[in-house]
Every structure is written in structure tokens, then in C-alpha cells.
């Protein structure tokens, strides 16, 4: 039989990859991860909640946009906040898609310390399409159940549609999925027994994504569930769900994403995922850089409002300043507003707009462009022009290094107190601590003191 798709390959699903060139990206990924954890530790509860909502909204918007669905950002935000118990208001209307993706992403984060199971995956599918069951039943898609018929991925529209991928026969899905789930749980950092068996999060996440999408177990929604599983895999490397969104980074490189998926699944059907794994690992690294910038933006917002807590603004002015932050750094903050835009957004007269804008300039809330007259634009005057946090080499950021090492030491102590002996997660923490200590005797002595609490002197094989 000729091999048209990867699941027809004689070695399916024994995926392989070459690690050449991966080490640097994985090292950068881990380094930024530690800094992000340190940043989150410095956030107060309000900003931490704001950061989680912001990043999850970005994830929801982007994972849906990859599938060609445009969601209402405000309703996604409201849904996420409600599921996090941060907003008790009820939606004003039916927003099934927004509510569904928000429920899915919150549940993925709530269950990142759980093993994967058929029940969990099917529950995620139910959450994603809650309220849309009748609509999907007309397309013979059973919400929350594996497909019982064939599934095709098509390209084009109308008479010009072309089948570009076929999932394996429905009769094999019930056998394919248990094998996938068993591999996923066996490679989880929560379950591995030996440190040598550890698979870096981005690699495991990449393989899980390709494997799941190749099986295509559902009649619809496979891409969104696959990216949810990918995040679940990444989260399991952490003690708390980290703040980054891989779908945002994927969506920014959507054409490359589909090309890389197609390369291994149908263009050159293979179980060698080297190119895919390298691309995916770099994308997860970039996702963390993007998240660092978003957290920085949230802190800028907090600093701005703290600076202006005594500044008197009327309702129109307060609304406009809130909109600057709501639209993000690539919105009004980058482009500014003019008097006409101010009038449209607040419903006031031209004279009132001019008076309000000049008042905010005088109070240091806004600043003007160099051009005057009718082309005059107004920009939010942020308090700090430099990032609040920067991902810098250890030697250039002593304060952040101390925070990262302190958190790692706390994690090591909690691990020792809980397990009372050597384990794979402890080895990972110890290795990460050594990497960041960079040979400093004081930090290494502190590590020795922590490890001395292990029964029988501890496992020193990694020292």
C-alpha cells in the first residue's frame, strides 16, 4: 500500500526526531520560563488576575482565529473572568463560541496536574461546543464523542474544494486514542521515574499536537483541542500554570504552522518530526517572549493608574484612557487619537472634545504629536518608557536572578517535604538551580543545605 498520510506509515506512531540544534532553543525556553515565574511572583493579586485574563483572552481569540472564527473580544474577556470567579455578572445575550473556548481554556489550566484521559478530552470537546449541539448534529458531529464516520480536511470553496488530508478510519480511532493517551501520560514529568527519561516540554507538546491532529478523533474542533493538549503538556513542567499563549504565536505564523503540519502528515508522510519539533519549540520560546511583553504592559497600566490616582477625570476622559489600555500596545497607544475620534467614542461635541483633550494634556495624562492643527494627535503618556521587566542574561540582572533562585529553592524544599526522597522532578529543579547559580559558592552551599534534608543524605548523582 502506498503511503499517502503519516498514519499509514509502517512505523506509525513511533515518532522520532533529531535533537541537533534543539538544545539552544530549549535552554532559552527554560531561561525565559524562570524569569516569567519570577515576574508573576512579583505581581499583586489584582495584576496577577489581570495577567491571567489578558493572556487567556489572547489564547481564546487566536486559537479560534486559526480556524477562521472571529470572536467578540469583550465577551471572551467576560466569560474568562466569570470562569475564574472574578466577575459575577451574567452575559447580555448568547455567546456560545466565546463562552465555550473560555470554559475550555480555564479547565485546561485547572487540570494541568491531572493525567490525560478519554473522559477529559471528550469533556473539553463538550465545553468547546456547549450550546451548539443541535447545530453540529446537523453536520453529523456528535459533541463530546469520537467520530463514527470519515473526516476530511479540505482546501478551497465550492466546486474548487480539494481534500488535503483524511483522518484514519473511524473504526480505528478507539484503538488509536488509547495508545496516544498512554504515551502522553507515560512521558508526563509527573509520572516519569528516571531523570534520563525526561522529555523537554516543547518537544512533548509538539509530538502530542501532531499525533492528535493526525488521528483527528472528532468531527470538528480537532485543532483547538490539539492546541489545548499542547498547552496542557507545557503546563505540566510547572508548579502553577505559566502565563503564555502558544496560539498567539502560532496565529502570527499561521501559514508556516499549516505548512509544517502538512509536511510531516501528507506532503512527505513520515514519523520523523525533526522539522516540526524544531519549529514548534521555537514558537513556544517566542510565545514566552510575547507573554513577557504583555505582562510588562499590564504593569505599565498599573503604574499609570497608581501615578494618576489623585488626577481628576470626568467620565468621558476616564473612558478614553481605559480604551487606550483595552486596545493594547498596537492600538490607540501606538496610533493615538484625534479630536474627531474622541467625539465618536464619547458622543460629545467638537468644543467639548477639544476642552477634554487639552485638560488631559495639562494633567500629564496625554501628550500631543509634533504636528498641530487638524492633524493633531494625542497619545497616552506612559510613566515608564522602558520595560518594567526585561529578559536579560543572569549577569546583567542580579535582582531577577535572586528572585528566580529563591523561588527554585522554595520549590526544591516543597518537593523534599512532600516526596521525602529523590524523584525526577527534584532532579530537574536541582539542575535548573545549578544552571542559574552559575557556580556561585554561596548559592551552591544553600543547595547543599536543602539536599541534606533528604533521607540517607539524598541522591547526589547529578551533583
Automatic annotation (TrEMBL):
Annotated Fido domain residues: 116-282
One Pfam assignment: DUF4172
The protein, known as: DUF4172 domain-containing protein
Organism field: Alkalimonas cellulosilytica
